[in-house]
Every structure is written in structure tokens, then in C-alpha cells.
Amino acid sequence: MSEINRREALGLGVAALAGSLVSASAFAGAQLPDNVSKGDYESALKAWRSIVGEEWVFADTATLQPYMKKFIPDPFNRCVPMGAVAPQSLEEVQAIVKVAGKYGIPLWPVSTGKNMGYGQASPATPGQVILDLKRMNRILEVNVELGTALLEPGVTYQQLKDYLVENDIPLWIDVPTVGPIASPVGNTLDRGVGYTPYGEHFMFQCGMEVVLADGDVLRTGMGSLPNQKTWTAFKWGYGPYLDGMFTQSNFGIVTKMGLWLMPKPPVYKPFVVQFPKVSDIDRMIEALRPLRVSSLIPNCVLMMGAAYQLAMFKRRDEIYDGPGDIPDEHLERVAAENGLGAWNSYFALYGTQDSVAAIEQVVRPVLTAAGGNVYSEEEMHDNPWFHHHQQLMQGGLNLDEVGLTRWRGNGGGLAWFAPVGPVTGDDAREQAALATAILSKYGLDYTAAWAIGWRDLHHICALLYDRSDEQMHRRADECYRELVNEFGKRGWGVYRVGTAHMELAAQQFGEKNREVNQTLKRALDPKGIIAPGKSGIYN
Amino acid sequence: MSEINRREALGLGVAALAGSLVSASAFAGAQLPDNVSKGDYESALKAWRSIVGEEWVFADTATLQPYMKKFIPDPFNRCVPMGAVAPQSLEEVQAIVKVAGKYGIPLWPVSTGKNMGYGQASPATPGQVILDLKRMNRILEVNVELGTALLEPGVTYQQLKDYLVENDIPLWIDVPTVGPIASPVGNTLDRGVGYTPYGEHFMFQCGMEVVLADGDVLRTGMGSLPNQKTWTAFKWGYGPYLDGMFTQSNFGIVTKMGLWLMPKPPVYKPFVVQFPKVSDIDRMIEALRPLRVSSLIPNCVLMMGAAYQLAMFKRRDEIYDGPGDIPDEHLERVAAENGLGAWNSYFALYGTQDSVAAIEQVVRPVLTAAGGNVYSEEEMHDNPWFHHHQQLMQGGLNLDEVGLTRWRGNGGGLAWFAPVGPVTGDDAREQAALATAILSKYGLDYTAAWAIGWRDLHHICALLYDRSDEQMHRRADECYRELVNEFGKRGWGVYRVGTAHMELAAQQFGEKNREVNQTLKRALDPKGIIAPGKSGIYN
Questions:
Q1: Beta strands per DSSP E along A377-485
Q2: Are residues A212 and A297 both part of a single domain?
Q3: Beta bridge partners of A275
Q4: Is residue B511 part of a domain?
Q5: In this model, does residue B276 exceed pLDDT 70?
Q6: Do the beta carbons of residue A178 and residue A116 sit within 8 Å?
Q7: Which residue has the higher pLDDT, B430 or B18?
Q8: Could you tell me the strand order of the sheet in which A107-110 lies?
Q9: Complex confidence, ipTM
Q10: Last residue within a domain, chosen from A233, A248, A263
Q11: Which residues are CB-contacts of A62 (< 8 A; sequence separation ≥ 6)?
Q12: A269, A363 in Cβ contact below 8 A?
């Protein structure tokens, strides 16, 4: 582990430098990695220009601006790229990787780089060049009968949805929040989640094409058969199943990915169950658990707190102008005024008229007995929050949650803190209390939601702050670090984390885990060309 | 690849030797691996005896007999262990692995070694010591609310089922065929499949404890958190998802595994849809595909051919005494006499009375319109084949399929050949024709079934022969090899294969796939201690 610690220390050293550099000149190009001379870097840029064309290599402050935007706290501005290159094909990616290997320049691959709240296009450490795959945006295949698709990384959810609609294909997509601009490939590689029964994206992924650090191409699963027929249909292939290794990792660059799409059901019926009190959290989770574990409710139930809901469409000062934290009673009252509960759990049923009715009559009494108020479209009418989830739970797209970034001001600050715990009311209550206490200490609100996946409970805290307020920006970073550490100690590890806090998150998961990842990294990418620091992994 | 080819050539050399040795003396202990002296092997045995006790190390012909039994063709008797050691705890496994590393002796881990038709406890190459984990048979945890379990490798399906029944826990297991004696951990590591909605076993696996080649222990996923709470509840953890790497592989020895169990539904209703003609295969698959892809039918549909069905309970000579292949018309007639179709597709609905009824009324007309006859328990009464699947589709246990091994005689010969193809009628027809032609050439019957998983079509051919007939044994091996090669060329790769044919199967999946697996093997097990040749992977 000493090697990892050394790397991290070096990284932090460079980070401090980067911070001062950026505030001085904002010329990211100055942050060269160790062992790379300015001459080497210029040679690499020249080689890349010859591969992708002048206009697709970015190495100055002005053209790099689109890659600088981030909502996550990064007060020392460490997560800053020094350049970017945007290939259009697999062959161009291979050639770019070979050049990177020759000069020892790390590449940070992004699909569309719109990962709002997890760092967008920003790399985990300074001195990296963004490998921007947005131009590789072909929908290579949609198999209507099987419900499979093969996509390049630059394809957006909107593009895929449009393709299905335009071709009258009765398949649904499953979107994460801010779906229109995000990439199915990128989101799945980060193990993102959505709102339909296909919400656990990596579960419904099938087949990858991966460029390795030496520029060679691996097709996973059945894709490695010379005359493959089931690359996007059969997940595992023969021998070790390797796709998982390429998620949340820096072991290769994924250039194609297969996904499964959900057949559009004849009937779709969305619901919300509202609980009036903030303290209802335990009874809500206890009531929903059996419905989810049994798949009676087939989609990932999002249990949205009132503060999170309100922050989508309102500013904090519209809700509360008192001192300190927003009191629970106040929040409950404002929620009620807006047709919301303190907790609002959205779920849906999918099937035929009769099968949906049959399940509804089982689900409703369970939730009602727990003190929830169950509503469907008839009662919720045009309630904007219901409308939002009503769209999402059928693979519809919207940008409503972008509003979260303005809760505390115009500076645009958002970081997801998302620990995973057991699906029990007691555990959720403990987690909520701990998160609230830590956030409060830093003057931040507990704006949270919960999601029950297959067997896990995700606690999704939106850490909302104003990035233009330098003090608050620093506090947000400190707060985030304390959250990761304090939750980690108690066995609540995060399922995903923003680029600025990947190293910290990895520290929670024990030394052996890191050693094995490092062993794999050294075997697959001995020069450390691909995304050093991704998920805390260095070569 | 030259290194792999060299290894394979060496292996075959030793195999020929082994064959002659075994037919002469049957003393497997004589087959030492390259670079291991008799003295080293004796030292290792001594060290292992001090770890597990005298009685749990097996190194002579008599005590090794239980590890010699196999149904797969292996005419040169290459897949023969030279010894076996049976630890009782994680710590003993670690100590055994360290001794193996010291003396360079390969270990072939088995859970219960009852993998009928895939090689049982036999290793892929000679000169290996079986690491028999059957004594590690603790059910470490069953979480009733979440439907999760944590098991050691020696736990059998029967044992887990008994535990649930005795403790009145309303959770179901999902069994493969010959479930009672098989191990959930072993079957999942081989990526076996079953009959309920949880039939894709690896999909419902969550968390592993793995002993690495250096004797260190890795816990995957959330299990690596120091105070983990969701090891068996959240599959992915943080950073690269590694569990898949340890399936069908030799990268580590799995000593604990988490599984998800299915909540017992209020209503379970099994069905069969029979198609009368052998040539109905395409219409059957076309009819069932949309029902499976949409999850209207939630379990893995097994479409059993009449010959496969009959072979479970009858001998070939009871069915047919003519020359050559059994004619289709004859098979159809015998099937009808036994209350079977030429194809018999078993599926079930799970839910409430109303929801099951709602889905039944959608499913029935689709199948009837395709020419199928749909029957439920009322019509099938005590039909033994229906009874068999009626049990399996609710996680019930039986050994009915052991009968397959006696179809051609008392010698006990069975090898599964299981290629994966697209779920289309045309593809299935082509595959069936090719398999029938190759089998016929070697005087063997086409006794097959099909299964639609999530998006894939498994073609499950039971290659049935009489192992006591030396000529037929050789023909079965040659036939199996031709099947793997001819199907592989056409893009129909196997999902799983017996120990004697792992190298051959791996050859179908392309050079890059093998290179990457070898790179990983060398990184994680540089001395090649764990199961050389598993899935065609050598260090």
C-alpha cells in the first residue's frame, strides 16, 4: 500500500499546485504529469492531431472550458484536465492509446461527460487528457424481437429514445436523472441506476468492446467468438466473466456496449405513496421492503424526501428564511402545501389491465396499513413531482433535477453522497440521523432520497451548496469527506462517488481490495495510461 | 499463444501416459506434474496431513476412488487427480494453498464434485490434487426478510432446502438438475441454471470470499468494508466488480458465497405446452420468445425433446429396436403413448390467484395459436415428467435425471453439450439439424432440450453413451469434439463444458480472450497453483 500512498501524496502535491495555477491563469495545460516533458506532450498532441484532425484536440484554456465545468466540490481545483482529444472511431481510440503509451500520458475516458453531481468530465487527478468519446455516437443495432441494443459511448439516452420512437419500436429505455444528455454506456459503466424494472443498469448490460492499454481490442462474453451471434444476448460467455472488471474501473476503455431494453407493457400505472412525517422513514421502508424483495413492485422504488423534492423546483430562500436547519415541522407544512408528503415513494405497476389491478389490490393495503397515503394519476393530476416520476418510471426523459444545483444560489453546487445499507427501518433512521448531523455541522441541508434495488437500500443524499461562495465550497468538500469517512467506518460504503473523492472512498474498502485492484491494473495497464486514480486505483 | 499451445501439448503427452498408467495400475498418484519431484510431493502430503489430519488426505488408488468417477467421455483417462485433500475451514484452505505454492503442486477445487455430465470432481489435466471443500458445509446466514443467504461450498441444495423447511422460512431455492447432491456455491461458480424465476444462478449471487493463490483472502463487493453490513445484499460494491472473474475460472478459490432466495409466492401454477411434431421446434420457440423476453413467463422455460424426456425413465431398447437413428415419426408416436409431445415446454406462473389468472389468460392463447396444447396439473395428473418439472419450478429436488446415464447401457455415460444461440426458430432449426447430423455420424441420439434465459437460447444436448463400451466411449469423445468445433465455427459457443473439453471450448473464443485470461492468471496466480486448464486457462 505504500506505493498507493506515495501516489496519493504526489497527487495532492500536484493538486495544491494546480489549484494555485488555475486561480492564477486557468491554463490547465501547465499541469504535466510526472515524467512527461513539455516536449513529449507537444509530440503527443501533434500525433493525436494527425489521428483525429486539428479541430478535435483541445489543449488551451479556451477550448478546454467545456471540460472544466463541474458541480462537485473540488476547492483546490485538482480535478482539472490538461487537454482533451475526441476520436470518432475504434481505430482512432486505438491509435490515441498507443501514442499515450509511448509518451506516458494518462487518458481519462468520458462518454458524454455529463455525470452531474459525480464530476462530469473532470479526471480524478491533474495531468490527464480527457478522451472524449462523444463523437462515437452510433446506435449500431437494435433487435426489436429480443429487446437488445448495441451502442457506442457517445449515444445519449435522448438519441436512443428518439430512435425507438421514430422507428415505432415498442421498447423502453431506462434513464437515470438528467437522462437526455447522459450516455447509456457511460452511466452503465459507472453502475448508475434508473426508475423502471430495468433500473439496475449493469444487470441489464450485455457484451462490451474494450480497448486495452496496449491498444488491442477485447470483446467480452460471446463477442469474442469469431462469428458471434449472441454478443448482446448472453451476458456471461465462456470462462471468467470479465465485464464487471471494466465498470467503475480504469482497466480498459469501453467503445461498444450491449444493453437490454424492456418491452413496452400494455398497461403502465404509476403511483406515489406519501408519508406525512419526517419520522415516518422507518415504517415506510419496512412496508416497502417485502413488496420490493418479492418483486410485487417491479421497479426500483424511489423514496424522495420533501427537501429533495422541493429543491428540484424551488430555491431554499423561497421555503425557509429562518436560522439554521429547516425544522422538520416547517418542512412537513411546506410539503403539504405543495401536495407532497415528508416522504414520497414513487412506484409503478406494469402488465395488463387485469394483472395490474390484481397486484394493486395487494400493494395498496400494505402501504395504507403502514400509514401511507397511496395516490395514482387521478388524484395527483398535474402535480409536477408526480409528473416527473411518472415520466421517469416509463423511461421518459427530463432535466428537472438540474434545478437542484441552484438550491443555495446560482453558483451550481451538487455532489451525490450515496451510501448503501441494509433495507431496514432502523438502519435508515440511524443513517438519516448521522447524515443530518454531519450536514448540519457544515451548514448544509439534508436533502435526501432512498431507493430499494433488488436487496439493497441506497441512501441518496444530494449535497447542495453554492459553488460561487468560496467558504461554502470548502465546507461542502470537508462535509463530503466527513460523510464518506463516518459512514464508511460504520459499514455503509458508497456505491459510487464523484471524481474528487474516489481515493477517499476506496480507502473505506480495505487494503486487500486495493491490492487486488492494483495487481489487476499493473497486469492490464503496466504504464498506467488509463485514468489513474479512477475508483482510487493506480498502477 | 505459443506458451498455451506448448502447455496443451505437454498436457496431452502426460495424458497419453496417464491413460496407459491407469489402465495398467490405476495408481493415479504416479502422475506428478512437471517440476515436482516425488520427494516434494511426499513433503506436501505430509504438510497437508498436519493441517487437516491424516484421514482427510487421499493419495492412494483405493481412497481416491470417489474422485475418479465420471460420466463424461475421457477415453485416455486424462482427467484424473493424483491426490485429494479435504479442509474444514478457511484457515485450512489458506494453509493448504501455501503448501501447494511452496512445492508447485496444482490444486483443483471442487465444492461437492457432483457435477454430473460436466466432469464431477475430475481435473482438466493430470497431476492435480483435488481440493475437496465438501466438509466446509455451514449455512452461515439466512436473512428471512431480505431473502439472502451466505453459504460455504460444501452446503448442498438439499441441506439448504431442509434448513428452510425445518425453520419454516418462506423462501425458495432454485435448483439445477440432480440438485440434492449438488452445491449452490459450486453450481453458481460454474454459472449453472435452474427452473424458477431465479434460474440464472450467477445473476442472483451476491458477495464472495476468495482465497487467492498466495493464501490471502479477498472479500468481494461490500464484503471488503471493515464493518460490512450488505455483503450479501448489494452485488457490485465500489470500484471494479470482480465476482465474475472468479466464475468458470482458476483465479481464486471461493470459500463463501452470498445468494438471493426467492420469496415463496402465495400461488404457484405450473404448466406444460406440448407440440406434437419434432418439426414444430421453430414455431414453439417463436411463440415462447416474446413471453419470456417480456417476463410474462417469469421462469426459465425448459423445452424438452421427447427423446430427452423418455431417456430419464426408460432405456433406449425399450423405445426402439430398429437400426440407426430413431425415426421422428416413431419418437412422436412413443411420446404420445407416454402423454408427451415431441416438444414439452414447462413454465410456471407465480403470484396471487388473481394475478396468475390474469397472466394465464394472456399466455394461453399465444401458445395455442402457435399449435401448442397447454396443460396444467388438472390435465397432467401424475404424469412423471410433468411431476418432475412441477417440482423443479418451485425449487423442489429430485434425482430423476440420473436415469439419463443409463439410456445406452449400464456403463454410465453422459456429457452435456450446451451451445448458446439467438432465440429464433430458424436458428434453433439449424442447430438441431447440425447436432442431429453429427450425433448420427457417431451412432448417438439427439436427446436435447432448449432453454430461454433472459435473452439467450441454450441448446442443451445430452450426449448419452455407454462408458463400458470402449468403442462407444471413444466415439462419444470424438463426437463431442466435433460438436464443439462445428458449432464454434458458426458462432454457437458453449456456455459451459466438461473438464475434458475445456481447452477445446476455449479455442473457439479467439486468441485475445485467451491472452487476457492468461494475463490475469499470471498476475493473480503466478505459480499456476489453482486449477491449471480450467476453462482453458494456464499461467
A1: 413-417, 420-421, 447-452, 457-465
A2: no
A3: A343
A4: no
A5: yes
A6: yes
A7: B430
A8: A57-58, A81-85, A128-132, A107-110
A9: 0.94
A10: A263
A11: none
A12: no
> Would residue A505 count as lying in a domain?
no
CA distance B537 to chain A (A): 8
pTM: 0.94
Please list the residues that pair with B259 across neighbouring strands: B149, B205
Distance from CA of A10 to the nearest CA of B (A): 22
Task: Please report, to the nearest 10 degrees, the dihedral formed by the alpha carbons of residues B72, B74, B79, B83 taken in order.
Answer: 80
For the segment B396-414, what is each residue's pLDDT rounded down to a tens digit? 998 888 899 999 999 999 9
Residues B89 and B154 in one domain: no
Q: Which among A94, A211, A236 is the top mutation candidate for probing chain B, defined by the most B β-carbons within 10 Å of its own β-carbon?
A: A236
Same domain, B254 and B288: no
Chain A interface, best mutation among B219, B229, B248, B285, by max A CB count within 10 A: B229
Strand partners, B219: B209
Residues 6+ apart with CB under 8 A from B101: B213, B214, B215, B527, B529
Instruction: Please count the CA atoms within 13 angstroms of the CA of A527 that sit on its side-chain side.
Output: 20
Torsion over CA: A398, A404, A407, A410 (sign): negative
For residues B76 and B15, the answer to whether their CB atoms sit within 8 Å is yes
- Chain A hits for B244, CB-CB cut-off 8 Å, are 236, 240-245
Is there a domain that residue A113 lies in? yes
* C-alpha to C-alpha distance for B163 and B137, rounded to whole angstroms: 12
Tell which residue, A45, A456, A30, A451, has the closest CA to residue B222: A456
Distances in Å between the Cα of B468 and the Cα atoms of A58, B70, B122, B304, B405 are: 71, 12, 18, 27, 12
C-alpha span between B68 and B338 (Å, rounded): 36
pLDDT tens per residue, range B183-230? 999 999 999 999 999 999 999 999 999 999 999 999 999 999 999 999
- Taking 70 as the pLDDT cut, the residues of chain A under it are 1-30
Based on the structure, what is the number of domains in chain A? 3
Do A365 and A440 share a domain, yes or no?
yes
CATH number of the domain at B17, please: 3.30.43.10
Q: State the CATH number of the domain containing residue B189.
A: 3.30.465.10
Q: Tell me the per-residue pLDDT of B375-397, one tens digit each, with 9 for 90 and over.
A: 999 999 899 999 999 999 999 99
Residue B3 has pLDDT above 60, yes or no: no
Q: Is residue A448 within 8 Å of residue A435, measured between CB atoms?
A: yes
- Residues A63, A89 share a domain: yes
Query: How confident is the model at residue B186, as a pLDDT?
Result: 97
| Residue of A205, A480, A510 lying closest to B221 (CA atoms) | A510
- For residues A102 and A237, state if they share a domain: no
Name the one residue in this structure whose C-alpha cell is 448503501: A420
Catalytic residue ranges of B = 118, 495-496
Assigned domain for A508 exists: no
What's the rounded Cα separation, in Å, for the pair A334 and A330?
Answer: 6
User: Can you give the CATH number for the domain in which A372 is found?
Assistant: 3.40.462.10
Quote the pLDDT of residue A4: 42
A467 catalytically annotated? no
User: A357 lies in which domain range?
Assistant: 267-500
**pLDDT band at residue B35 using 50, 70 and 90 as cut-offs:** confident
Alpha-carbon distance A304 to A290, whole Å? 19
Binned at pLDDT 50, 70 and 90, residue B30 comes out as low
- Distance (Å, whole) CA A498 – CA A439: 18
Whether residue A159 is found in the same domain as residue A70: no
Same-domain check for residues A189 and A285: no
Between β-strands A128-132 and A81-85, what pairing exists: parallel, antiparallel or unpaired? parallel
Question: Do A247 and B240 count as a contact with CB atoms less than 8 A apart?
Answer: yes
Whether residues B239 and A494 touch (CB distance < 8 A) is answered with: no
Q: Is the dihedral of CA B17, B21, B22, B26 positive or negative?
A: negative
- Which set of grid coordinates corresponds to residue B263? 420469496
